[in-house]
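for the writeup, i need someone to sanity check this before i put it in the appendix. the sequnce is what the collaborator sent (i think, or maybe the updated version? ugh). structure was predicted straight from it, no edits. if anything looks off just tell me and ill rerun, i have time this weekend
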Amino acid sequence: MVKWPNNRTINLVFHGHSVPTGYTTRGVLDRLNAYPYRTLKKVNDFYPYSVVNTITTSIGGEQAEQGAIRFKDEVLNHKPDVLFIDYGLNDRSIGLERAKVAWEQMIQEALEYGTKVILLTPTPDLKEDITSDETPLAQHSAQIRALAKKYNVGLVDSYAMFKALAEIQPLKGYMSQNNHINQKGHQFVADAIFEYFKL
Protein backbone atom coordinates (compact mmCIF):
# COMPACT_ATOMS: atom_id res chain seq x y z
CA MET A 1 0.00 0.00 0.00
CA VAL A 2 2.95 2.34 0.63
CA LYS A 3 4.16 4.38 -2.34
CA TRP A 4 7.71 5.23 -3.31
CA PRO A 5 9.89 6.63 -1.78
CA ASN A 6 8.53 5.32 1.53
CA ASN A 7 7.98 1.72 0.43
CA ARG A 8 10.44 -1.16 0.65
CA THR A 9 11.01 -4.52 -0.98
CA ILE A 10 8.94 -7.41 0.37
CA ASN A 11 10.36 -10.93 0.00
CA LEU A 12 8.04 -13.91 -0.35
CA VAL A 13 10.08 -17.10 0.06
CA PHE A 14 8.70 -20.48 -1.01
CA HIS A 15 10.48 -23.47 0.55
CA GLY A 16 9.67 -27.05 -0.38
CA HIS A 17 9.91 -29.68 -3.09
CA SER A 18 9.17 -30.07 -6.80
CA VAL A 19 5.69 -28.50 -6.82
CA PRO A 20 6.66 -24.94 -5.81
CA THR A 21 9.79 -25.36 -7.93
CA GLY A 22 7.54 -25.75 -10.99
CA TYR A 23 8.15 -29.32 -12.13
CA THR A 24 5.48 -30.65 -14.48
CA THR A 25 6.28 -34.06 -15.98
CA ARG A 26 9.41 -35.92 -17.20
CA GLY A 27 11.67 -33.36 -15.52
CA VAL A 28 10.24 -30.41 -17.45
CA LEU A 29 9.79 -27.18 -15.49
CA ASP A 30 7.32 -24.35 -15.97
CA ARG A 31 8.59 -21.94 -13.32
CA LEU A 32 6.56 -18.89 -14.24
CA ASN A 33 3.30 -20.82 -14.09
CA ALA A 34 4.01 -22.41 -10.70
CA TYR A 35 2.09 -21.03 -7.73
CA PRO A 36 4.95 -18.89 -6.31
CA TYR A 37 5.02 -16.78 -9.48
CA ARG A 38 1.26 -16.86 -9.97
CA THR A 39 1.02 -15.50 -6.43
CA LEU A 40 3.46 -12.72 -7.32
CA LYS A 41 1.35 -11.84 -10.36
CA LYS A 42 -1.79 -11.56 -8.27
CA VAL A 43 -0.07 -9.44 -5.59
CA ASN A 44 1.55 -7.20 -8.20
CA ASP A 45 -1.74 -6.61 -10.00
CA PHE A 46 -3.66 -5.92 -6.80
CA TYR A 47 -1.03 -3.63 -5.23
CA PRO A 48 0.44 -1.53 -8.08
CA TYR A 49 2.82 0.40 -5.80
CA SER A 50 4.35 -2.67 -4.20
CA VAL A 51 7.88 -3.97 -4.74
CA VAL A 52 7.57 -7.71 -4.16
CA ASN A 53 10.01 -10.54 -4.85
CA THR A 54 9.11 -14.20 -5.17
CA ILE A 55 12.10 -16.31 -4.15
CA THR A 56 12.01 -20.10 -4.40
CA THR A 57 14.37 -22.11 -2.22
CA SER A 58 12.57 -25.34 -3.11
CA ILE A 59 14.36 -28.38 -4.57
CA GLY A 60 12.72 -31.21 -6.50
CA GLY A 61 12.75 -34.51 -4.64
CA GLU A 62 13.56 -32.96 -1.27
CA GLN A 63 11.76 -33.72 2.00
CA ALA A 64 11.46 -31.59 5.15
CA GLU A 65 14.54 -32.96 6.93
CA GLN A 66 16.72 -31.92 4.00
CA GLY A 67 14.97 -28.56 3.88
CA ALA A 68 15.55 -28.01 7.59
CA ILE A 69 19.29 -28.70 7.28
CA ARG A 70 19.80 -25.84 4.84
CA PHE A 71 17.15 -23.55 6.32
CA LYS A 72 19.34 -20.92 8.00
CA ASP A 73 21.91 -20.67 5.21
CA GLU A 74 19.65 -20.91 2.18
CA VAL A 75 16.25 -19.61 3.33
CA LEU A 76 16.66 -17.06 6.10
CA ASN A 77 19.56 -15.48 4.19
CA HIS A 78 16.91 -14.14 1.76
CA LYS A 79 15.35 -12.12 4.60
CA PRO A 80 11.83 -13.46 4.07
CA ASP A 81 8.93 -11.25 5.08
CA VAL A 82 6.60 -14.18 4.44
CA LEU A 83 7.71 -17.82 4.30
CA PHE A 84 5.71 -20.63 2.70
CA ILE A 85 6.55 -24.27 3.54
CA ASP A 86 5.34 -27.09 1.25
CA TYR A 87 6.92 -30.52 1.88
CA GLY A 88 3.92 -32.78 2.52
CA LEU A 89 4.08 -34.82 -0.69
CA ASN A 90 7.67 -35.90 -0.16
CA ASP A 91 7.48 -36.29 3.62
CA ARG A 92 5.70 -39.59 3.10
CA SER A 93 9.21 -41.02 2.63
CA ILE A 94 10.30 -40.07 6.17
CA GLY A 95 7.04 -40.54 8.07
CA LEU A 96 5.03 -38.33 10.38
CA GLU A 97 7.35 -38.16 13.39
CA ARG A 98 10.48 -37.17 11.51
CA ALA A 99 8.53 -34.73 9.36
CA LYS A 100 7.05 -33.06 12.44
CA VAL A 101 10.49 -32.49 13.98
CA ALA A 102 11.77 -30.91 10.76
CA TRP A 103 8.70 -28.71 10.25
CA GLU A 104 8.82 -27.50 13.85
CA GLN A 105 12.49 -26.61 13.53
CA MET A 106 11.82 -24.51 10.42
CA ILE A 107 8.73 -22.85 11.89
CA GLN A 108 10.54 -21.96 15.12
CA GLU A 109 13.59 -20.58 13.32
CA ALA A 110 11.42 -18.49 11.00
CA LEU A 111 9.34 -17.07 13.85
CA GLU A 112 12.48 -16.25 15.85
CA TYR A 113 13.76 -14.40 12.80
CA GLY A 114 10.55 -12.37 12.69
CA THR A 115 9.12 -13.89 9.53
CA LYS A 116 5.42 -14.48 8.96
CA VAL A 117 4.86 -18.17 8.20
CA ILE A 118 2.23 -19.86 6.05
CA LEU A 119 2.12 -23.67 5.91
CA LEU A 120 0.73 -25.57 2.94
CA THR A 121 -0.86 -28.99 3.08
CA PRO A 122 0.08 -31.16 0.08
CA THR A 123 -1.40 -31.01 -3.37
CA PRO A 124 -2.83 -34.36 -4.57
CA ASP A 125 -1.20 -37.56 -5.70
CA LEU A 126 -3.60 -39.43 -7.97
CA LYS A 127 -2.15 -42.73 -6.73
CA GLU A 128 -3.77 -42.06 -3.33
CA ASP A 129 -7.50 -41.94 -2.64
CA ILE A 130 -8.07 -38.30 -1.71
CA THR A 131 -11.51 -39.14 -0.31
CA SER A 132 -9.94 -41.30 2.44
CA ASP A 133 -8.77 -39.90 5.78
CA GLU A 134 -6.40 -42.85 6.27
CA THR A 135 -3.90 -42.25 3.47
CA PRO A 136 -0.38 -40.94 4.16
CA LEU A 137 -1.18 -37.59 2.51
CA ALA A 138 -4.32 -37.19 4.60
CA GLN A 139 -2.32 -37.90 7.76
CA HIS A 140 0.45 -35.46 6.83
CA SER A 141 -2.21 -32.86 6.03
CA ALA A 142 -3.74 -33.31 9.48
CA GLN A 143 -0.32 -32.91 11.07
CA ILE A 144 0.38 -29.71 9.12
CA ARG A 145 -3.00 -28.28 10.17
CA ALA A 146 -2.15 -29.07 13.79
CA LEU A 147 1.24 -27.34 13.47
CA ALA A 148 -0.39 -24.22 12.03
CA LYS A 149 -2.74 -24.16 15.00
CA LYS A 150 0.01 -24.85 17.57
CA TYR A 151 2.23 -22.03 16.32
CA ASN A 152 -0.63 -19.70 15.33
CA VAL A 153 0.67 -19.32 11.78
CA GLY A 154 -1.06 -19.20 8.41
CA LEU A 155 -2.40 -22.25 6.60
CA VAL A 156 -3.26 -22.83 2.98
CA ASP A 157 -5.11 -26.14 3.05
CA SER A 158 -4.47 -27.28 -0.51
CA TYR A 159 -5.33 -30.87 0.32
CA ALA A 160 -8.79 -29.99 1.67
CA MET A 161 -9.42 -27.74 -1.34
CA PHE A 162 -8.57 -30.47 -3.84
CA LYS A 163 -10.53 -33.01 -1.78
CA ALA A 164 -13.62 -30.80 -2.05
CA LEU A 165 -12.96 -30.31 -5.75
CA ALA A 166 -12.73 -34.08 -6.28
CA GLU A 167 -16.34 -34.41 -5.12
CA ILE A 168 -17.58 -32.46 -8.15
CA GLN A 169 -15.02 -33.19 -10.89
CA PRO A 170 -12.05 -35.45 -11.71
CA LEU A 171 -8.72 -34.08 -10.51
CA LYS A 172 -6.92 -35.21 -13.67
CA GLY A 173 -7.75 -31.84 -15.24
CA TYR A 174 -5.59 -30.18 -12.57
CA MET A 175 -2.59 -32.52 -12.84
CA SER A 176 0.39 -32.72 -15.19
CA GLN A 177 1.30 -36.13 -13.77
CA ASN A 178 0.10 -38.20 -10.81
CA ASN A 179 1.90 -36.08 -8.18
CA HIS A 180 2.43 -32.70 -9.92
CA ILE A 181 -0.30 -30.14 -10.49
CA ASN A 182 -0.57 -28.35 -13.85
CA GLN A 183 -1.11 -24.63 -14.53
CA LYS A 184 -4.75 -24.89 -13.54
CA GLY A 185 -3.78 -26.60 -10.29
CA HIS A 186 -1.13 -23.99 -9.54
CA GLN A 187 -3.65 -21.20 -10.09
CA PHE A 188 -6.00 -22.93 -7.66
CA VAL A 189 -3.28 -22.83 -4.97
CA ALA A 190 -2.18 -19.27 -5.82
CA ASP A 191 -5.76 -18.03 -5.50
CA ALA A 192 -5.92 -19.53 -2.00
CA ILE A 193 -2.57 -18.01 -1.02
CA PHE A 194 -3.71 -14.59 -2.24
CA GLU A 195 -6.54 -14.58 0.30
CA TYR A 196 -3.83 -13.71 2.85
CA PHE A 197 -2.90 -10.60 0.87
CA LYS A 198 -6.36 -9.13 0.50
CA LEU A 199 -7.31 -6.12 2.59
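The CA atoms of residues 148 and 155 lie 6 Å apart. The chain has eight helices and seven strands.
thx in advance!!
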